[in-house]
C-alpha cells in the first residue's frame, strides 16, 4: 500500500505536469463506479471538464487537487491504486479504472487492480481529511510525539499507524522508524522515555526522507506517475527481512504480530 513517501513522490511528479492544465473529459470505466465516492460517477464526470488544476497538495496518504472553481478532487490510492500521467496516445495501462483527459493532450490514468481506491469531488476537503493527525513529514518533535501517545495504552506501532494520531505512516515506515529509533514495536506508547521519544521522532523524519530520495518502495504494486517502480525496497532495514541478519548487530530479524499486523524487528537492537 502506498504510504507517505510514495504518495508524496507522485504529488511532486504531478506538480510540474498537471498544474495549470484543465480537465477536458473524464471517463469512469464500467465496474469502477464505486471508486467515485462523491458525487455520483455521472455527476463527477460532468463536473470536472473545464476546471483547471491550481495545485496538488497532500494530507497523509490523500492527494488533493485544488480546482479553479474552488472545489477539490481528493484521491486515496488504498492498496493498489496508481496515478499515471501519460500522453493520450500511449499504450493502454492494465487495470485502468478512471481516465482524466487534460488540455495538453495528456491523460491522468487511475489504475487499480483491486478497485479499493476512493475519489471525491467536494467543496471542502475537511470532512474527508479533517480527522487526520499532523502530517508525519511536518517535523514531528518529541513533545509532539508524546502528545500523540499521552494516556493511550496502545502499542507504539499501533499509534504510529493510526492516521488520526499521525498521518502518513503504514506498516513499512512505522517498522523502519521503530528500528532506527531502537524501540520494540510492542512497547506501550506511554512507556517511552524522553530520550526514546527524541530518537523515534528523529527516526520518523529520517526514514521518510530517505524513502523519498529513493522515490518510494515497490514491494508489490506501487509505481510513480511514469509507471516506474521506486527503489527503497532495496534499502529497508527490517521490513520483510525475517531471518536475515540485522545490519547493526547480525541478530536474525524476527516477525511477530502487533495489533493483528505482521511486524518485523531486531530483538537485540529494539528494546
Ligand atoms: Zn540488531
Compact overview of the structure:
The protein is an alpha+beta fold. It has helices at 4-18, 41-47, 126-129, 142-149, 156-161, 171-181, 194-213; strands spanning 23-28, 36-38, 53-59, 62-67, 72-76, 81-87, 96-102, 106-112, 118-122, 254-258, 261-265.
Describe this protein's structure:
- The protein has seven helices and eleven strands.
- The protein is α+β, with helices and mostly antiparallel strands and 271 residues long.
- A five-stranded mixed beta sheet has the order 2-9-5-4-3, with helices on one face. Strands 1-7-8-6 form a four-stranded antiparallel beta sheet. The chain has a two-stranded antiparallel sheet with strand order 10-11.
- A hairpin with a 3-residue loop joins β7 (96-102) and β8.
- The longest helix has 20 residues, at 194-213.
- The two termini are 27 Å apart.
- The structure holds zinc ion.
- Zinc ion (ZN) binds at residues 246, 248-249, 251, 266, 268-269.
